[in-house]
Input
Amino acid sequence: MSVITFDMKSCTGCGTCEKDCPMGIIEFTGKSPSIQEKHASSCISCGHCASVCPCESIAMDGSDPGRLDNINPEVLPSAEQMSLGIRARRSVRSFRTTPVQENIVTSLVNTARYAPTSGNSQLVGWTIIRTPGELRRITEHVIDYIRFLAASDDPAAAAYRFADMVKDWEQGQDRIFRGAPAVVLTHAPLSHGAAAVDCAIALTCFDLAAFSAGLGTCWCGFFMMAYRNWEPLRKAIPVPEGHYYFGAMMLGYPSYKYKRIPPRKNAVINWM
Output
C-alpha cells in the first residue's frame, strides 16, 4: 500500500502533485488524484507531493498535512549569503578545548539528515566520538597504522612525513584529530550502491550547518586512510552489522577567527 493519502475535501484537482512526482505514480481521474495499487511499491516517500500541494491535501505515513513545517521564504538565505557561507567556511585544524554540547550536535545531525540520498533511502547513520578516552584510543589505532607505513617503503610515508607525525604524537601533539573535542562519523550499509556518496553528502551538509552555528570542522583524511587499511581500527569502532564508515569529520570551536577568503583556482568548465 502507498504511504500517500489524499484529502478530497480540500483538494482542488490542480494536478501539481501529479506533475511533480519524480516516480510518476500519481494519476488523476477527473479531478480526483490516486495511486494505482500496481504503482504503490514505486513510491520512495520523498514527500514532494505533500510539499508542493498548495492546499495541504496530501499526507505522508498517516501524518497530518497541517503538521508539516512550512517554508518561509523570508528566512531562506539569499544567493549572496549562500555564496559567502560556502566560500568563508574553512577547514579548522586548531580547536579550543571547550566541548560541544550534545544538544548542539544533535541539532546539526537533525539538519543534515535532510540531505539528499539515493532513492530517498535515508540509510546514513551517525557515530559521535566525544569522550577524551575514546578519542585517544581511536587516535592510537590510527597512529599504529601511520607508524607501520613510516617503517615501510610506502610512498605515502614520505609524502605525508609519517615518521614526523608519529614523533609529534609521542611528544603530545595530535596531528590526526588536531585536538578536536569531537569526531563525527557517517556510516551506511555496504550493500547500498550509493553508500559512500550518501555519507559524503550528509557530512557536507553537516559541515555547512556546523559553520553556520559558529563551529569549526575538518575532514579526517588520515583516519579514513587508516580505517580502509587497518583492521585493528575497524574492529575498535562499533558499527551496525553490514555497515561501513564512509566519512569522518573533526568538530569543535575554532581557536581563531578567519577574516578573509583565500584565493582558489579558477573552475575548469566544459560546456557541451
